């Protein structure tokens, strides 16, 4: 690699080499072609040596060509920012006024100006870079900066962050709760998929069980026209909710006669083994359209005012989502390839054609806003119940690492995202070239140029109604593996880690929301220590907490970190019973994820060893039920060990971790995975499994009762 290309890559945050997370760490060299591709996507030509040299010079000039950056993210203990002005003005008088977000009054503050003798000649003008140190104490928050130098005024945004994320006093004591996939909930009244009324019932049930926290899958809005695209991690927008969770019968405009003609259809959907998204969602939309027609002519003034207030509060983000969904519904009947294949005038949300379209289709756009209004209302109702019952943490929401490329988020601000490339996973033993998730990924410099506002909005939207927020693939605050569409391999792109961390801490404190970082995967050295310093809780799972990179013994409960949220597994891992019998190994073999019979046999041998290790760990911790102690080894296909899920849950509850999340799939002996990574629905029914027990029967289920008793022995 040419030295200049290496320099440009370093300055732009493009990895030229990286290591995987395998037991034997393998180093990967990134091709020049990939580096040049990403440099150009960041606005720096790199097609030849001359272009690279010119881009390096342009990068060096960049900071000197603007007086202030768009935003300065600083910690409360060290509020500083720099200013570039003509050197002839360096000794002029300065006045600094700050206006805090939500306050119209500008306040002068004390400051010092430090001249570090940094000068640069641009054209015929000599410039100086001055450092401003604010000495007045500032509360955390966002401040509009008005810096006056004689008759000139310079403006920027100052984000003053705390040193650490929000510390909820409830997390000083060990609490526990359930990890719930809301869509998977069965009930006697829902329409074949879990909904917000089920969530209210779960809150009540959790209160009776002594639960302090309820973990939820991402609830963000998915594709309106392709409801079978059901992955909660590939949303259309991370700012809004999925209308499929609306309880139609709880919508104020719903009438009992609406249900009469579809009662049989609802019963079939309720009884089906798997969630029938392609039937449930259109059915709910039809009913919501009826409700919307009544809403438009309703005399309920209060509800109308609440709707108008909601629309105003959500502003242009809601407007863009609703326009996108309306356009998509129309174009999907004649255009294949998503919004990028639309006529050019509709690919720009700010175009005259889109504005005219919005006027012509105001009623349909209003319907999409109505669905969000009702979804938010019903979710807010569940949160109010949390507050009334006093659950210590409440909802623990999940923020997906990215958004679908064919989404309202990317359509709304296409220049903010990498074009012709998407986020994925780096190479590992199973995927030698990595995984192409195809998720939209922010361009780092474009994100900062927008003062991080899109990232801030996403954090706020998902911290709403949250006592804690799980940031999926938290390493993306530092770096994200991105793959060009026309390539099988990509590289890591680095973000401004300190800025991203400080914004997370700031929003965490402003919203009183604890933060948890999901860090299973390729974790950079020292990364977890930085998260701990920032008071971001780690995430631990039983299957990953092993000695010798997963080949040794299970670590004892006392060895788990205290500042962690812990569970037996995740939605991407086999439930306990499935794991025990090795059904996941056979499934992977049948689907070709395990490529040979020899590899399958090796996996079974390892699982046999792992079962021995698990039994030994449970024995050492004395967690077997006293009225149902372990009777034998159960290793060679004898049967499922009675009481093992109680023992495992008690084992995890013994850890010093702040939060233990029990999974109903383990408690209820589920033998199938919710999501099998590396597959789509043509191979495996991902995100479609229902719990085997109805919500109304759960509290009388003997497995549920016994597991609660086991957990309460420790928490």
Query: Based on helices, strands and strand pairing, what is the structural class?
Result: alpha/beta
- Sheet-strand content, in percent, reads 15-25%
Strand order of the largest sheet: 11-12-15-19-22-23-24-25
Q: What's the Cα radius of gyration?
A: 27 Å
Largest sheet: 8 strands, parallel, barrel
Helix content: 25-40%
Mean pLDDT: 95
Describe, in plain words, how this protein is organized in 3D:
The longest helix is centred in the middle third of the chain and has 31 residues, at about 300-330. The protein has 22 helices and 25 strands. β7 and β8 form a beta hairpin. It has about 725 residues and is α/β, with parallel strands linked by helices. The protein has an eight-stranded parallel β-barrel with strand order 11-12-15-19-22-23-24-25, surrounded by five helices.
Question: Which descriptors would you attach to this protein?
Answer:
22 helices, 8-stranded parallel beta barrel, alpha/beta
Question: Care to give the gist of this entry?
Answer:
This protein is α/β, with parallel strands linked by helices.
């Amino acid at each position: 690699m040419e030295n200049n290309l290496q320099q440009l890559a370093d300055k732009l945050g493009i990895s030229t080499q990286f290591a995987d997370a395998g037991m034997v760490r393998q180093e990967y060299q990134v091709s020049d072609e990939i580096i040049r591709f990403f440099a150009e996507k960041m606005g720096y030509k790199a097609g030849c040596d001359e272009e690279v040299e010119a881009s390096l010079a342009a990068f060096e000039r960049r900071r000197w060509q603007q007086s202030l950056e768009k935003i300065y993210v600083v910690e409360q203990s060290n509020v500083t920012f720099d200013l570039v002005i003509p050197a002839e003005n360096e000794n002029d008088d300065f006045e600094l006024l700050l206006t805090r977000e939500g306050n119209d009054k500008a306040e002068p503050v004390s400051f010092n100006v430090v001249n570090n003798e940094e000068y640069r000649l641009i054209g015929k003008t000599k410039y100086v870079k001055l450092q401003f140190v604010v000495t007045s104490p500032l509360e955390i928050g966002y401040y509009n900066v008005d810096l006056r130098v004689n008759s000139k005024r310079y403006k920027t945004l100052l984000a003053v962050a705390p040193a650490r994320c929000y510390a909820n006093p409830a997390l000083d004591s060990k609490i526990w709760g359930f990890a719930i996939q809301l869509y998977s909930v069965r009930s006697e009244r829902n329409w074949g998929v879990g909904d917000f009324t089920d969530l209210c019932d779960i809150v009540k049930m959790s209160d009776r069980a002594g639960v302090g926290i309820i973990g939820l899958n991402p609830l963000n809005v998915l594709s309106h026209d392709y409801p079978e695209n059901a992955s909660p991690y590939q949303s259309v927008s991370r700012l809004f909710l999925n209308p499929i969770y609306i309880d139609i019968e709880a919508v104020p405009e719903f009438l009992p006669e609406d249900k009469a003609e579809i009662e049989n259809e609802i019963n079939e959907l309720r009884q089906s083994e798997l969630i029938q998204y392609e039937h449930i969602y259109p059915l709910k939309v039809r009913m919501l359209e009826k409700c919307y027609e009544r809403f438009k002519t309703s005399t309920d003034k209060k509800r109308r005012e609440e709707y108008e207030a909601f629309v105003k509060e959500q502003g242009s983000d809601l407007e863009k989502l609703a326009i996108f969904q309306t356009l998509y519904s129309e174009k999907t009947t004649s255009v294949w390839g998503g919004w990028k294949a639309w006529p050019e005038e509709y690919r720009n949300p700010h175009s005259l054609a889109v504005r005219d379209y919005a006027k012509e289709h105001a009623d349909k756009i209003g319907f999409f806003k109505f669905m969000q209004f009702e979804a938010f209302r019903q979710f807010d109702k569940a949160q109010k119940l949390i507050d009334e019952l006093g659950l210590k943490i409440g909802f623990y929401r999940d923020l997906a690492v990215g958004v679908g490329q064919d989404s309202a988020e990317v359509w709304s601000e296409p220049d903010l995202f990498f074009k012709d490339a998407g986020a994925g996973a780096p190479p590992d033993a199973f995927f030698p070239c990595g995984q192409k998730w195809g998720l939209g990924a922010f361009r780092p410099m474009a994100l900062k140029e927008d003062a991080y506002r899109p990232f801030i909005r996403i954090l706020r939207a998902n911290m709403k109604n949250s006592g804690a927020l799980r940031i999926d693939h938290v390493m993306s605050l530092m770096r994200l593996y991105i793959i060009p569409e026309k390539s099988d391999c990509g590289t890591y792109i680095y973000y401004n880690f300190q800025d991203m961390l400080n914004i997370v801490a700031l929003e965490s404190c402003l919203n009183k929301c604890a933060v948890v970082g999901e860090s299973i995967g390729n974790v950079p050295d020292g990364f977890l220590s930085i998260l701990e310093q920032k008071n971001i809780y780690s995430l631990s799972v039983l299957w990953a907490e092993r000695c010798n990179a997963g080949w040794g013994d299970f670590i004892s409960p006392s060895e788990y970190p205290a500042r962690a949220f812990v569970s037996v597994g995740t939605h991407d891992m086999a439930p306990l019973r499935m794991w025990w019998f090795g059904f996941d190994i056979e499934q992977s073999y049948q689907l070709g994820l395990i490529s040979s019979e020899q590899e399958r046999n090796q996996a079974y041998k390892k699982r046999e060893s792992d079962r021995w290790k698990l039994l030994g760990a449970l024995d050492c911790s004395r967690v077997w039920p006293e009225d149902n102690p372990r009777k034998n080894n159960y290793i060679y296909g004898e049967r499922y060990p009675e009481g093992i899920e109680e023992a495992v849950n008690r084992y995890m509850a013994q850890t010093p971790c702040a939060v233990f999340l029990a999974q109903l799939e383990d408690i209820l002996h589920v033998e199938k995975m919710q999501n099998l990574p590396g597959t789509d629905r043509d191979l495996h029914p991902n995100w479609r499994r229902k719990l085997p027990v109805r919500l109304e029967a759960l509290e009388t289920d003997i497995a549920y009762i016994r597991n609660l008793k086991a957990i309460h022995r420790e928490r």
